[in-house]
Amino acid sequence: MSSIFSKIISKQIPADILYEDDLCMAFRDINPQAPTHFLVIPKKEIQSMADLTADDQAIVGQCLIVAAQVALEEGLANGYRLIANTLEDGGQEVPHLHFHILGGRKLNWPPG
Ligand code: DGP
């Protein structure tokens, strides 16, 4: 199922893109929940964490490495949180796998 993120990947709709390569893309969240809040997504249409297979190992690995690199570039040397909301109970709204990276303030635990 295609989502709004497919349109960001294809540049049909604009986003504040922080990083892009053949496998993944990082861009700022349109509704930031922290001073720094960006998303890392695979370019492949994977709906959620629940749809990952062993074939996706390189894609997910690259997404996490990009998350860490961009976090440092964004000045999050003091730390950050990576979240993958998954399906209904996880509060996932966009059906395209994405990793939230939030930082720039002390984050509460546990989340709601
Ligand atoms: P969730 O599916 O609940 O894990 O969160 C989806 C996130 O995607 C939410 O924080 C807002 C963000 N988002 C949704 N639509 C767009 C968009 O068109 N552009 C950008 N930059 N972010 C979006």
CATH topology: the name is HIT family, subunit A
Determine Rg (CA atoms, Å).
13 Å
Which CATH class is shown?
Answer: Alpha Beta
- Beta-strand level of the residues, as a percent range? 15-25%
Q: Quick one: biggest sheet?
A: 5 strands, antiparallel
Q: Which word captures the global form? A: globular
Quickly count the domains: 1
The gist of it:
This protein is α+β, with helices and mostly antiparallel strands. Helices cover 24% and strands 22% of the residues.
Write the layout of secondary structure elements.
Blueprint: H1 4-9, E1 17-20, E2 24-28, E3 36-42, H2 57-73, E4 80-83, H3 87-90, E5 99-103
Antiparallel strand pairs: 1-2, 2-3, 3-5, 4-5
Bound molecules: 2'-deoxyguanosine-5'-monophosphate.
Explain what the structure shows.
This protein is α+β, with helices and mostly antiparallel strands. The chain has one domain (4-98): HIT-like (HIT family, subunit A, 2-Layer Sandwich). It is built from three helices and five strands; from the N terminus they run αβββαβαβ. The protein has helices at residues 4-9, 57-73, 87-90; strands spanning 17-20, 24-28, 36-42, 80-83, 99-103. The chain has a five-stranded antiparallel β-sheet, covered by helices on one side. Strand 2 and strand 3 (36-42) form a beta hairpin. The termini are far apart. The mean pLDDT is 97. The chain binds 2'-deoxyguanosine-5'-monophosphate.
